[in-house]
Automatic annotation (TrEMBL):
Its EC number is 2.6.1.42. The lineage of its organism: Bacteria, Bacillati, Bacillota, Clostridia, Candidatus Fimenecus. One of its GO terms (biological process) is branched-chain amino acid biosynthetic process. NCBIfam families: ilvE_II, PRK13357.1. Its cofactor is pyridoxal 5'-phosphate. The keyword Amino-acid biosynthesis applies. GO terms for molecular function: branched-chain-amino-acid transaminase activity. The modification N6-(pyridoxal phosphate)lysine is found at K194. This is Branched-chain-amino-acid aminotransferase. InterPro entries: Aminotrans_IV (IPR001544), Aminotrans_IV_CS (IPR018300), Aminotransferase-like (IPR036038), B_amino_transII (IPR005786), BCAT-like_C (IPR043132), BCAT-like_N (IPR043131), BCAT_family (IPR033939). Keywords: Amino-acid biosynthesis, Aminotransferase, Branched-chain amino acid biosynthesis, Pyridoxal phosphate, Transferase. Belongs to the class-IV pyridoxal-phosphate-dependent aminotransferase family. It is an enzyme of class 2 (transferase).
Amino acid sequence: MEVKIERTKTPKPKPDEGKLGFGNYYTDHMFIMNYDEGEGWHDPRIVPYAPFALDPAAMVLHYAQEVFEGLKAYRSDSGDILLFRPEKNMERLNRSCDRLCIPPIDEAFAVEAIKELVRVDQDWVPHAEGTSLYIRPFIFATDAHVGVHPAHHLIFSVILSPVGAYYPEGLNPVKIYVEDKYVRAVKGGVGFTKTGGNYATSLKAQDVAEKLGYTQVLWLDGVERRYVEEVGTMNVFFVLDGEVVTPSLETGSILGGITRMSCIEILKDWGCNVSERRISVEELVQAYDEGRLLEAFGSGTAAVISPIGELRVGDKVMQINRGEIGELSQKLYDTLTGIQWGKQPDKFGWTVKVN
Ligand SMILES: *Cc1c(COP(=O)(O)O)cnc(C)c1O
């Protein structure tokens, strides 16, 4: 399938690279492709960035049949524009599609479409240290039908947003509240997918935690409220004495991050003892009391590595590594960002050149 390109006649002014923040600006173009039952996915095109016209009965607005992805394009010092493991995002998008009864997309084609869109808007990939172009692919149901059934008509779109350095003043450890009332996902549900509903239902806990002075919540399993799952919209790692632990993905209630997967591969490459297993809050508290909880961090595309400086479990406040970033967290951050921005040799073959 060939991607038709219609270029904008009214390019927008570029934002100040020092004040990008996250998700505040969108580029000149977007990718769109339609699905209609009987025809399959068709008419891939890059067009000027513009609103969608949606019927008020469009199913996505009522029943949230929607999936999305998130990845970034990075500008290297030599002028290359690099993607990080984009094929993994498209694999995950299809896993989300399957769970949400959305027809699968052609993964290799979708990666090519993303590359083409980034090439068209390549001047929007920011240059300043730590900045990047956030890529948001998403698929949603457009059938004008107030009835609960899988859609027959959908749109696959990709938009781009230049984003700032996540930590302009260096890696900043965050305070995390262990959530004991609300849950994010349960076994058999949609926790392993990137679907809008997962995020709508997380807002309440996030709001409560913020009012208590915490940046994010640590989610526990939805049944026993005992085992650690994720931190906010990041996966979580704990550095114990002699073992690095991250919750296993077995239950299907955890989103399998590509940053998580990459951290595990790098740690193994360094010869670290990494376990994907269940880890309970009691075990964490015990490790902390015995001085064996050395570091904790979240992992995700937006922040890459987000050190955890404080964990609050009920009334107990645990300060980790004196509230400072740990050695392993820093080394992982430097290695991952080094590969992503093309400053370090890409020994795993993870980056994909766009231009
Ligand atoms: C996207 C996401 C992650 C991190 O995934 P990455 O591929 O590393 O960006 C983790 N948890 C949740 C809930 C997410 O939505």
